[in-house]
Amino acid sequence: MRGKLTIGNWKMNGGLTANSALLVALLAGWKAPGGRSMGVCVPLPYLGQARDVLAGSAIAWGAQDVSTHASGAYTGEVSAGMLAEFGCRFVLVGHSERRQLHGETDGVVAAKAAAGLNGGLTPIVCLGETLAERDAGQTQAVVGRQFDAVAAVLGMRMALVALAYEPVWAIGTGRTASPAEAQAVHAFLRQRLGAAGAEEVKVLYGGSVKAANAAELFAMPDVDGGLVGGASLDANEFLAIAAA
Ligand code: 13P
Description:
Blueprint: E1 4-9, H1 16-29, E2 36-41, H2 47-54, E3 59-63, H3 80-85, E4 90-93, H4 96-101, H5 106-118, E5 122-127, H6 131-135, H7 139-154, E6 162-165, H8 179-193, E7 203-206, H9 211-218, E8 225-228, H10 235-243
Parallel strand pairs: 1-2, 1-8, 2-3, 3-4, 4-5, 5-6, 6-7, 7-8
Helix pairs in contact: 1-2, 1-10, 5-7, 7-8, 9-10
Bound molecules: 1,3-dihydroxyacetonephosphate.
1,3-dihydroxyacetonephosphate binds next to strand 8.
């Protein structure tokens, strides 16, 4: 049983006061119903705050990016070891916003996944096609290429990551993949995992997940939960998604 995992990706949102209200409301409201778990990936300056509020609770926390390097002269970068020291369990790698806006290649994403694992974190490897790629019938080719780049570096250690299928056309657009569209890509990814984790790797769905659509998405056999952007900033909405 893989169980369901819902991760909030706050992106570059929040502040000390708003975070405190959100985290306290999540703590108060999260009953961790059977087989369900929750985490939040917060902006780096707030990792200490997340740790202080959430330590010892059933809610995990993590970061949204990590350096490919372990230490050294890399101004502005943050290592997996540093994230682990702040109690992070998860780190997002290869989010489409980092691929598109920060020029992260498949190779960089693979190196970040490896760095996260080496630092004791669970990388959540994000994959997804653009609308133009979907319309051109290239969804499996694109997602498969993104997957293979990471698998080439991790090998059997793919079993230790989580995957997040996030179609770029569904992120922040209000347009969600249908349960059948999501399931098709998730099944493809699970087949790709093969002996390297098909049974145990969680494959999350991301892209305009909200309380109103989470249950039907998470009911799909290969959808193991969600990676939630905008709706994770609203405690009631996020709690309802994670319980779906
Ligand atoms: P939205 O839920 O705001 O569409 O964002 C999805 C996402 O990018 C999560 O990583």
